[in-house]
Amino acid sequence: MGCGAAGVQICELFELRCTWKANSRPSISTRRFRLDWTVPALKVRLRLLWFPQAQFAGALLAEHSEIAMRHGINLECQPVKTNESPISAVLSGRADLCVASPSHILESDDPKSLVCLLTFQQASSLVYLSRRDHGVDGIHRLAGKRIAVWPGSEDLELNWMLHKAGVASGDIEFVPTKDTVQLLLDGEVSCAQMTTYNEYFEFLERGGRLTDVLCLSARDWDADLIKDGIIARKDWLEADPARAQAAVNSLLEGWTRALDNANDAIELCAKIRPDVDKRFHWMQFNEIRKLIVNGATLSHGLGFPDSRHVLQAAKAVSDLHGREFKDGIDGFVAVNFWRSADPSFRRSRW
After folding, report:
1. Residue 153, class by beta-carbon neighbours within 10 Å (0-12 exposed, 13-18 middle, 19+ buried)?
2. pTM (2 decimals)?
3. Residue 328: Cβ within 10 Å count
4. Residue 232 DSSP label
5. Inter-residue long-range contacts of 37-41, CB under 8 Å, 24+ positions, other chains counted
6. CA torsion sign, 296 to 299 to 305 to 311?
7. 94-148 pLDDT tens trace
């Protein structure tokens, strides 16, 4: 009998016939035939942290190639919904997995029900460009200024950096906006939150000059927090561990293929998002690659869910919100699925 995890299953059967006549030995014959049937793959819904782009190239490759189906799942990468955070989508059951920061687990309404399965980006992707002509020549000069931030509680790292630098956030006006770049270019804010793989490039593409801004990084204050982890509900994992393992395997293989074959990844991203210039897809992918081939990827392997990221987030939440995790942070990371994946998809070198 030959079978895979999903799709067309083939079973070879034999029919045995036995006949006899009086005063004779029985006559035995067999007939071989095939029975084909289709077993549907299990759907796994992954809510992205933004719209499909090179930031999620590995997941998109797993979805649109044979990878996920071969592992037995029908992976569906859902674009972000502006009125619902990825963590909320998982908590509500409208998504099975999501791309989110470990800090989003700790800041959620029900952190104990969530767990981090994988971490691809192993370093913070955030920078804070500040206008020199607004008098910002250091982080302390942000006091009394306006800072453009993304809506939806995406400013934990920024606030922790300010806290550690001794800058009172109460003296700052935070301006939520989807386009932090334009507000900075128009001079409506003195500082803007950006990722190195998206808004930073947009700033340069729209005519911004690095000589006109000061680039602040939370790493300088040991306040850096990673962005993209793969988060799930614990009860979803417990309900079908094999399905969860298939999802982990698919994402690891997808990112391995993306890192091994960047051209394939970019071609897919350009097909899914023809509204984005291919040059921008390449710039974003190359920056994402730097964030991936870093830290725990080099010491442990691709996708390793490093508990140190959760510990760092726990310190931030404690410092800013007074929220303590007395049972520790081990329960927020599930490394067993990563360990059970094929070692060839957990490499540490490219």
Report:
1. middle
2. 0.87
3. 11
4. E
5. 37/8, 37/9, 37/11, 38/7, 38/8, 38/9, 39/6, 39/7, 39/9, 40/6, 40/74, 41/5, 41/6, 41/7, 41/68, 41/69, 41/72, 41/73, 41/74
6. negative
7. 999 999 999 999 999 999 999 999 999 999 999 999 999 999 999 999 999 999 9
